[in-house]
Specification:
heterotetramer, A mainly alpha (556), B mainly alpha (113), C mainly alpha (84), D mainly alpha (140), A: 556 residues, mainly alpha, two-stranded antiparallel sheet, 2 strands, globular, B: 113 residues, Helix Hairpins, 4 helices, elongated
Chain lengths: 556, 113, 84, 140
């Protein structure tokens, strides 16, 4: 049983070798099939691991047989189970999509599989330095995948991401050095065990943890560190945007989660409420202003991460479950949205909303799946986004300001999705000759691209219709207990919240399509930080969080 | 303690280079300086615990901590890989735009939108 | 204006790191180091302790490192290869 | 660019010694300062010296990039296989399954020696490949 845990990391790496080797040595071009088989093997392994993890057992694996502080340990607990599950499901679906798209060589699948294996390793490892190595694997694979199309914008997006993330990883190393200075070991549980002996030095310990958090936080894209994300996610190939938005930022956030929960620093955790609320608001505001359809989705990833982070910051068992539930839901519907829009861009080659308006009517199946995703992200019952957003805002009741910011963010979500849905409603602009020349768009969609859309929308509906079961499972997995939710998900008072944001969102949309509104939106679209400013923001973000901690840490 | 101040100044110098230089190649060089300062920091932390290299021949006592040194090997390889990738991205960008200045490239990209 | 902001922020960071003067004061606890020094040669057979840690106790890190190298090499090749 | 006689001669005479030194660093990695990565970088630097002095066409005839990439990926595969062998023999992934022994008075460590060799070849091949591709861009 224990050996299955390590195979979960090794199988993607082995398969990635195969995708390179079978082409080179035998001339077989079966890279997508190899990748899909390997990922399915991982899924089966993961399902085998479910019963012991569900019983609350933490499977430990000592690499090379060296016990914890000496060697490296890999944990399979509830958190890593959920994270790997999300990663493998979204990875499998995106692989199917890229198989259907037929644009990619065998090298694409090589990078993709290494990205998958790296993410699993990063979330499962219990050693900080090993976490650093795995995060570097993840980030280097994603730099390459973002630049895969070799167009100017994607090259530049990849370069920006490389610089910002390397700066962040430098802070991560600084944090590791400080922790080693204080404790003399690298394993997370060992540090947590030693923490009680180091009470006079908890300040330095917390500062070290802040630098770890900032280092990974660049990948998790919260407020001052988010500037790389819109370009990188928008100009990557569609399956890559789906896995980056759906999984990679969450894995990074769950690594922060693991560090903070194991080292148990509640005063640090509370900062995340404010970071999360501001992130949600900013992401939503900028999303409204965009005209590129993938960029809207990318900004929404930032905004939804804000919801998740705010839920994590409250730090009650209820809000933790809510946050993890939203992680699961967000990865499902965000991948669905990216892939649906991806189909449209695949068929037309255009990506501005104005050029695409009304086109979606020609492909009714994609229209339906897009609708499922959009209603989920807006939080309309009975889709899954509704349930998790309700849980998060219920848990934020004690913090009125954060509650208010989150509410505005969900209004903004409505507005921008009304804007984005112009692709799928209204009449086609008749001047656009492109649509007249080519017909039969419906038949041009490969079957392999329809399958992932169908699976994801089915999962969205299922997790939305049975919120009690899903939250029950999650709380059993991460807390080993069943939380009591005296919340009726489908009650009238909760419906009204959703209705209010719909009304506000619609009126706000009517506001921004007026002339003055669109001027403001144009201004917002053009105000984006340059590379130098965003690099400066990373340093400033580190200082800000430290100052915030020093000011509030003593009070609590 | 002097060594610590020097390491900190190297650290800050690297950050300053990354943040404020306009040329892509200079940014990459600064990134390498930044990474090197962290490598030196680790080695410095390890070196304070002893005086001789950790090669256990006979009559060797008071060796330094070998763990940071072993980890820094990994870290150096990673920083080399990032350098290689960043340089090739910069070359690719240079071929497309004919310039390495980040402000000019960004102006160009903003005009395209 | 921008330059001043940059230099100010960086100096602030430097001031902060130096002001936490006791960052590096204590020596790191030596339990793990003593473990390696006492048992390293016996358990792994290598005199060079750095090698023994690099390839035995923490070989998983090294595996990750080789993957990073492979990624960088194939990334560079991918970037410079002419698309068919 | 015309090749200088001095550079040509010295690089040709020097690079075999650099390669030899690299092999020493790799194979004595467990006994003296050095190891797989350091040796591999020196190995690559020997090849790159030739490359810079004589043009890369000369080197590519002897070391075709395809062979280098085969070494690169193959060594990665062998590394994982070593780990899996540890899993099968000893019960843990990447377990040191050779017993440490002694030949005459020199301690030998087959596991570390073998992995050093694998990493040395891999790093050497990888860095040479990166330089090949970056140098090729320089010319065109």
């Amino acid at each position: 049983m224990n050996n299955l845990v390590i195979l979960l990391v090794i199988i993607p790496f082995l398969a990635s070798f195969l995708t390179l080797f079978e082409k080179y040595a035998f001339g077989i071009e079966k890279a997508p099939q190899t990748a899909i088989v390997a990922t399915s093997c991982c899924l089966v392994l993961l399902l085998f691991l479910f019963p012991p993890v569900f019983k609350g057992k933490t499977i430990e694996y000592f690499l090379g047989g060296w016990k914890e502080p000496v060697g490296i340990t890999i944990y399979m607990d509830g958190l890593s189970w959920i994270a790997s599950f999300i990663g493998i499901v979204i990875g499998l679906v995106s692989l199917f999509f890229s198989w259907g798209e037929k644009k990619y060589e065998h090298k694409f699948y090589f990078f993709f599989l290494i990205l998958l294996g790296g993410m699993e390793g990063a979330i499962m490892t219990g050693d900080i330095f090993n976490m650093f190595v795995f995060f570097e694997i993840v980030s280097i694979a994603s730099y390459i995948l973002i630049a895969y199309s070799k167009k100017t914008k994607s090259l530049m997006a990849s370069f920006n991401y490389l610089l910002i993330s390397s700066l962040g990883m430098g802070f991560f190393l600084l944090g590791i050095a400080l922790l080693y200075q204080q404790t003399g070991i690298f394993s997370l549980r060992g540090i947590a065990g030693l923490k009680n002996q180091l009470i006079p030095n908890t300040r330095i310990l917390n500062i070290a943890i802040i630098s770890l958090v900032v280092g990974i936080g660049v990948k998790a894209a919260f407020f001052p560190l988010h500037t790389w994300l819109p370009d990188a996610h928008a100009f990557a190939p569609h399956p890559v945007s789906s896995i980056l938005s759906g999984v990679m930022i969450k894995i990074s956030f769950l690594a922060i989660w693991r560090i903070i929960r194991i080292l148990d620093t509640p005063s640090l955790q509370h900062i995340f409420i404010w970071i999360g609320a501001f992130t949600a608001l900013l992401g939503a505001i900028f999303a409204i202003a965009q005209s590129d359809c993938k960029k809207i989705l990318a900004y929404h990833s930032i905004s939804q991460m804000g919801f998740i982070i705010a839920g994590f910051g409250v730090a009650t068992s209820f809000s933790l479950v809510a946050s993890l539930y939203h992680i699961l839901n967000h990865s499902l519907f965000k991948s669905l949205l990216f892939l649906s829009v991806g189909v449209v861009i695949y068929l037309t080659g255009k990506r501005k909303i104005d050029e695409l308006a009304g086109f979606g009517n020609k492909i009714p199946f994609v229209k339906v799946t897009f609708l499922v995703g959009a209603l989920s992200i807006c939080g309309v019952p009975p889709f899954n986004g509704y349930a998790s957003k309700t849980l998060i805002s219920t848990s934020l009741k004690d913090y009125p300001l954060a509650y208010f910011l989150i509410f505005i963010a969900s209004v903004g979500t409505f507005t921008s999705f009304i804007k984005l849905s112009r692709i799928f409603r209204g009449k086609i602009n008749q001047e656009n000759t492109f649509y007249k020349e080519q017909k039969n768009f419906k038949e041009k969609i490969p079957k392999k691209m329809i399958f992932p859309l169908f699976t994801l929308s089915a999962l969205c509906i299922i997790t939305g219709l049975y919120p009690e079961t899903t939250t029950g499972l999650i709380s059993r997995l991460i807390l080993n207990e069943k939380i009591k939710t005296d919340l009726h998900f489908y009650s009238l008072s909760n419906f009204t919240g959703s209705l209010f944001s719909l009304i506000f969102g619609l009126s706000f949309y009517l506001l921004i399509i007026t002339q003055k509104g669109s001027k403001v939106m144009n201004f917002l679209r053009k105000t984006r930080p340059t590379l130098n400013s965003s690099l400066l923001l990373v340093v400033a973000g580190f200082l800000l969080i430290v100052v915030f901690y020093l000011l509030t840490g003593k009070a609590t | 303690m002097m060594a610590f101040y020097l390491i900190i100044s190297l650290f800050l110098l690297g950050i300053w280079g990354i943040v404020s230089k306009d040329n892509l190649i200079k940014k990459i060089i600064s990134l390498n300086i930044f990474n090197s300062s962290l490598v030196v920091l680790f080695i410095y932390i390890g070196s304070r615990t002893g005086s001789t290299a950790p090669i256990m021949e006979k009559n060797i006592k008071n060796v330094v901590d070998p763990l940071p040194q072993a980890l820094m090997l990994t870290s150096i390889v990673i920083s080399i890989c990032i350098m290689a990738l960043a340089l090739s991205l910069a070359m690719k960008v240079y071929k497309k735009h004919g310039t390495l200045s980040i402000s000019r490239i960004e102006n160009k990209l903003n005009k395209d939108e | 204006m921008r330059k001043i902001a940059e230099i100010l922020i960086i100096l602030l960071l430097g001031f902060f790191l130096i002001a936490e003067g006791d960052l590096l004061k204590p020596l790191p606890p030596a339990e793990l180091k003593n473990y390696f020094v006492e048992k390293g040669v016996k358990q792994t057979g290598a005199i060079n302790l750095v090698s023994s840690i690099y390839l035995t106790y923490r070989a998983f890190d090294t595996l990750g490192e080789t993957i990073v190298l492979l990624l960088a090499v194939s990334g560079v090749i991918m970037l410079f290869e002419a698309r068919k | 660019m015309r090749e200088s006689e001095i550079v040509d001669m010295i690089s040709r005479k020097l690079s075999p010694y650099i390669l030899l030194f690299a092999l020493y660093l790799i194979s004595y990695g467990h006994l003296s300062p050095g190891g797989g990565f350091q040796g591999g970088v020196v190995l690559a630097s020997g090849v790159i010296l030739l490359c810079l002095a004589r043009g890369e066409g000369f080197v590519k005839r002897k070391l075709p990039p395809k062979a280098l990439s085969l070494v690169e990926t193959g060594m990665f595969f062998i590394f994982i296989l070593m780990g899996l062998a540890g899993l099968l023999i000893g019960g843990y992934f990447l377990e040191n399954f050779f017993l440490p022994g002694k030949i005459e008075k020199v301690p030998t460590e087959s596991f570390i020696f073998f992995l050093n060799l694998v990493i040395g070849l891999k790093v050497g091949a990888g860095i040479t490949l990166i330089c090949f591709y970056i140098l090729k861009q320089e010319e065109t």
